[in-house]
Structure formats: structure tokens, C-alpha cells
Amino acid sequence: MRASLALALCLGGCQFAVRGLPLDAPAADLGPAPDLAIAPGVDAGGPMFRSLASGTKVNLLAVWGSGPADVYVAGEKGTILHSVDHGATWSTAASGTTSSLFAIWGAGPGNVLVSGDNGILRHTLDGNTWLTPATLTSAGRGMWGSSASDLYVVGTGYRVEYSSDGLAVTWTSTQPIGNADSFYGVWGSGPTDVFVVGNHKIIHGYSGAAAGWTTQYDGPAKFLAVAGGVTVGGAGVVLRYGNGQWAQQTSGSTETLSAVWTDGGETWIAGGNGTLLQSTNGLSYKPVVSGVGLDLNGIWGASASDLYVVGDNGTILHGP
After folding, report:
1. Would residue 9 count as lying in a domain?
2. DSSP element (H, E) containing 211
3. pLDDT tier at 39 (50, 70, 90 boundaries)?
4. In Å, what is the CA distance from 53 to each residue of 81, 82, 191?
């Protein structure tokens, strides 16, 4: 059965990211992030981004929002940040864990989840109080849902966790391919058209955790994120889906590419050493000034002109 891939995206676009290793140090307020003011200059005529004060120096790993004035960021040491004023200020939530949090997804402003190491899953209905609806089988590296009743988390052990109860309380766990490596990203065009990426693998499923999964791509690349029919990963790899298959594209970068966001017309990619790439035609990519040399780990946009990028040492960028 050939999947149809209509580029129906999550609210405001999709983003998935993975980066970093768990730290055992307790969560703490480590003070304001360093001044990451954008240096003058332009490369390839790219847009410029400005740094936002996150109030932390921990590595930030994922970002998602229900809209431009409701944005969540997650990271190492159980960090969860929330802004309701377009990134001007960020409040810190008590997540109840010191584990690294790698993925965020929400069904709307009053229904948001984060996942991370040690099977951690946290859920909020108000942006302030985070509860534990369940503990997952694997470390959650990527999360996506077509709705709160069709929710996926993927992670270590090539595990796909699936919940359909609308409350993220009941989960089933499957291992579509039989070894103990890792998945890092998940995205779908709808409930019957879901893609999961990981170490050397891209697999495709049709309907929930019980459905059959087929391997669509098996190669040397390490895939770290997928959204809107685009997957990215190690050594500058970019693949785009079309006509039932994945085709490699030239990114112009050799950096590890950790996150991707697209609205179906414009595509943005974030990665190592401050890498930002932009495509306006789905074919070619140009480098864009980020103004930082730190690893960038997550990207999400309310639109192509209203993007948030997060990275190491408390980095939050907003632009272009």
C-alpha cells in the first residue's frame, strides 16, 4: 500500500529535535544566559535572528507552540520554559524531574506534553502544573500526534509508543525492527500516514501501534528529525519525500542537522555550531546567519517569518 503524503502539518508547523546526553546534576537556576547578541553581517543574504534571554544556561533541546504568544521550550535537567508574550519573558515550570526532556507536542494551548529520558512523560492543562500521566517503556526522543487521541512517542530500543485515550494515560509499545538502537523523530500527514526516523532507518506505518511498519530507507545516515516530509541528520544529510520514496538533497553543510520545520512551502533546518539552513523552493538550501556558534537543537515556527530556535547554553533565537 503506497502512502499518500499530503503535507498536512501540525498547528503552526511541525518540529522534532534530539540532542544531548542525560545529566545527573540536580535541576537549578544557573543564572542568565550569556549575551548572545547577533553580530552584524549577512551570509548568502540570509535573514537575521535575535537572541532572547532564557534565564538559564542549560542546553535547550526542543521547542513547540500553539501560537506566537504561547511557546514552550524543554531541555536538560528537566527544564521547561513557557512564554506567553512572544518570547519577551520566560517562566520556569517545576517538571518534577532532573532527566533531559527531548520532545514537546501539544493538541492546543491547554493540552501539552513533554517526553525524555528514563521514560519520563509530563502533561499540562494550564502551562504551569505538570503531572505524570504515565511512564513510558523507552526514553522518549520524538513526539507527534494527529490529535490527542492519536499520539506517538519514539525512542530507545527502536520503540514506538502509542496512545489513543486522549489523556496520554494508556500506552502500547511496539518494536517495529528487531534490535536495540534508537528512533529520534516521528511525524505524519495524518493518522494513517506516519513516518519514524532513527539510526540508519526510516520506517512507515499506517494506523496506530498495532499496524504493520515497513522500512522505506536503510542506509548509512543517522536521522535525527522529521517533519513535513523532510528528514535531517548526521553529516548534513537531508532527505525529502515524494512519489512514494525518499530522495537525498544537497544541504551544503557537513554539520549534524538536529531539527527541521516546514509549512509546506518554506523549510528551515537547525544544527551544529550555529547552523541554520533555509529552503524556499524545496530543492536547494542556503545558510542563514544565526549569530551563535553553539549547537542548535530545536526549531518551531508560528509561521515562516516567526521562528523560534533553541540550543546549547540556554540559547533561544527569534526571527527572521
Report:
1. no
2. none
3. very low
4. 11, 12, 37
Question: Under a CB-based contact definition with an 8 Å cutoff, are residues 177 and 158 in contact?
Answer: yes
Overall average pLDDT of the 33-50 stretch: 48
Contact (CB, 8 A) for 27 and 98? yes
**Contact (CB, 8 A) for 132 and 100:** no
With H, G, I as helix, E, B as strand and everything else as coil, classify residue 174.
strand
- Model confidence at 181, pLDDT cuts 50, 70, 90, reads confident
The string of pLDDT tens digits covering residues 52-66 is 999 999 999 999 999
Looking at the structure of the chain, the number of domains it has is: 1
Grid cell digits, residue 320 = 527572521
Query: Is the residue at 4 inside a domain?
Result: no
On whether residue 36 sits in a domain, the answer given is yes
Query: In this structure, what CATH number is given to the domain that contains residue 36?
Result: 2.130.10.10
Give me the phi and psi of 265, to 5 degrees please. -115, -45
Residue 284: give the domain boundaries: 16-319
Q: State whether residue 168 is helix, strand or coil.
A: coil
- pLDDT tens profile 210-245: 568 889 999 888 999 999 999 999 999 999 999 989
In a domain, 79, yes or no: yes
- pLDDT: is 137 or 34 the higher one? 137
What is the band of 26 on the pLDDT scale with cuts at 50, 70, 90? very low
Residue 260: pLDDT band (50, 70, 90) is very high
Taking the C-alpha atoms of residue 155 and residue 44, their distance in angstroms, rounded to an integer, is 36
More confident residue, 73 or 6: 73
For residue 55, which amino acid is it?
Answer: G
Q: What is the DSSP letter of 281?
A: S
Exposed (0-12), middle (13-18) or buried (19+): which is 131, by Cβ within 10 Å? exposed
Q: What is the CA radius of gyration of the chain?
A: 18
> CA-CA distance, 101 to 173, in Å (whole number)?
19
Angle at Cα 127 formed by Cα 267 and Cα 299, nearest 5°? 15
Please identify which residue in the block is written with the cell numbers 544565526.
Answer: 290
